[in-house]
């Protein structure tokens, strides 16, 4: 049980680092989708009783994170005629190094936090922290709107991973609400990205600098 | 069941307005829903229903103390919205009206949520519902503001979800069930795991503080308020920020019950003072009167945070100040919207001598600025006086001095900009531009009404409100 969970989280942490090194938007979107699906499947590993509601929830998460959101992002990307984020504010190698250092720090920090016995041997907490850090790094370090959205999704994946610690206590209705909000967020972001593209003829958020004091 | 109407009526109307095929009659949905909402919330204010605190959602004392101001604010915005949208026939108002109504329903849900997860879902949904309103002007600048709002606000709200989960884990580690209802978290009290509790507080403070617009998480605010129509600024500054403040009050109550009141007080006081300072400094520098309103909002959020750090008497004053801030700030945003429309721009280079071009709106604007800078006998004066008094009584002399200095600087900044907008000679271009936008009673009435409400609140604070605030304080400070 724990091995399977750790394998999944470990893979997700690896995907974080891959996401930090890639400048191609299609692969970034694919990495985030795979990570989302991987994490979406995890309740099946954690639940002792895989009831129909849990199954439905897993199905919903995997569909939305693995297919719906990537579809929306790819459409926005095609409309904008770009597929690379060539000029990051934080270069690929530095961000990989920061990400790796962050992952190590997350492991060390999680070891010092008080954890319940059943969570002590899993990678859930360090995995969550590493994903949150990676997400923030992508949000700050990249300049194209779509890569920033991917950063937001990685951040959200980290929070989802942390939420799995509470899988028995957070009601499914709240989980469903969170998922719904996320989908709506990506939908809204997609529309705004499309408008930005039309207004500025670019998705480079560095051009959004008129408003300052 | 009446309280659920506060959520369901606006939500159903949002759907109906979205499907409604006629552009001209659609804005009337706003007034209809606003009247129903005000009637419902005032009835519930006077005769509160028996809301079991163990329910997930309910019209509890804190909702009773704050939700009616959202209703009144929305009524003002709705009355203004009909003539405003009639001026903006070039844009379809479908998304605008639908998201305004949806935002009202979601704000009601957030005020009534007694479950941390549900509160988060509603807050995030309000954030998303405000997006179509923010880029209603559809200019590149409006898009830039919307993008910043989405990214900064979205990240902030995401962090508050992480904070909510950490609070759940604090309960789980402390031997509880990880139940995220406020009542069970408060009941667990000192059993909550301390490290997780502190991590949760930091994340929730940053998250909901971003939504409130506390410095240094306020960066989205000047852009969003500066570029959005005045009516949207009124709704965000008076309503959405209040939701985030109520969330912080509820979370704070959990930490207090766990014996961490010293930590919450210190952090809230620090962020509050920082916000008033940052706002005061930017008010001295900005040259745009709509951005000025945004910094004034940062200042008032800082005042609220300071008040919330002060125990029962401070929180009572904070609830009073929420009412004053909502009504006064909304009036100010609406009259500023009138001035901005006539001038064609919100910068001081263009907008000048507006008392000759739009005399009534300019007069309302000046009066509103005086009200918001705590001139007696308007409401904000009494609530700020109360806050300063409690701050002094708690023995924080330096903080009081700092707060008063910031308020003075903010007053200087606000009056500098306001007088430069109102006095002087308007340029010929502004005069020509303003002829297209006559000052109709429909556009003057709503800000006048809201300002009148602020005056009334200052002169005759109704006893039902006083007791509602008192009960809300009891809910937050007495263990269940």
Explain how this protein is built.
The complex is a heterodimer of chains A (213) and B (480). Chain A is mostly helical and 213 residues long. Chain A has one domain (2-211). Chain A has helices at residues 2-21, 25-46, 52-80, 92-112, 117-120, 124-141, 145-163, 172-200. In chain A, helix 1 (2-21) packs parallel to helix 6 (124-141), helix 3 (52-80) packs parallel to helix 8 and helix 6 (124-141) packs antiparallel against helix 7 (145-163). The longest helix of chain A is centred in the first third of the chain and has 29 residues, at 52-80. Chain A is globular. The model of chain A has no long low-confidence stretch (mean pLDDT 85). In chain B, 78% of the residues lie in helices and 0% in strands. The mean pLDDT of chain B is 93. Chain B is mainly alpha-helical. In chain B, helix 3 runs antiparallel to helix 10 (230-257), helix 6 packs antiparallel against helix 8 and helix 12 packs antiparallel against helix 17 (397-422). The interface between A and B is large, with 42 and 49 residues.
Key terms for this structure?
heterodimer; A: about 210 residues; B: about 475 residues
- Largest sheet, strands/sense/barrel of chain A: none
Approximate helicity band of chain A: over 70%
Shape of chain A: globular
Mean pLDDT of chain A: 85
Q: What fraction, in percent, of the residue positions of chain B are helical?
A: over 70%
Number of helices of chain B: 20
Radius of gyration of chain A: 18 Å
Strands of chain A, total number: 0
Q: Kindly estimate the percentage of residues of chain A that lie in beta strands according to DSSP.
A: under 5%
Indicate the low-confidence ranges of chain B by residue numbers.
none
H/E series of chain A: HHHHHHHH
Helical segment count of chain A:
8
Which residues of chain A sit in consecutive blocks of at least 5 with pLDDT less than 50?
none
Structural class per helix/strand content of chain A? mainly alpha
Count of individual domains of chain A: 1
- How many E strands of chain B? 0
Biggest sheet overview of chain B: none
